[in-house]
Amino acid sequence: MRDLRRVYRAQYLQKLAEVTEVERAREAELHRLEVEERKRRKQAHLQRVGEDMKRRAILMDRKRVESKVNEALEMARRSKVKRGRLFWFRRLETLSKLIASSDNA
Description:
The protein is mostly helical. It has one domain. It contains 1 helix and no strands.
């Protein structure tokens, strides 16, 4: 009877070791898959963040260039207006001199 118990116990322990090993392998595989999934999600997140940063940098650069172009156009417009005013004032001055000289004559 004792031998039978020893045999049953040995079989039980052997089966327990097999089941434990299978369970350990399954847990290791699940852990590996979970780590891979986390790594993939992290990489995707970093990719999105990188793309967003690139988009923002391009947008800021574009705004900077546009502001410089607008500033140059505004300066050209102001310069044109100033030249027009100078021309008008010179004409007015010439006409006033002409009127003043005709009054004196």
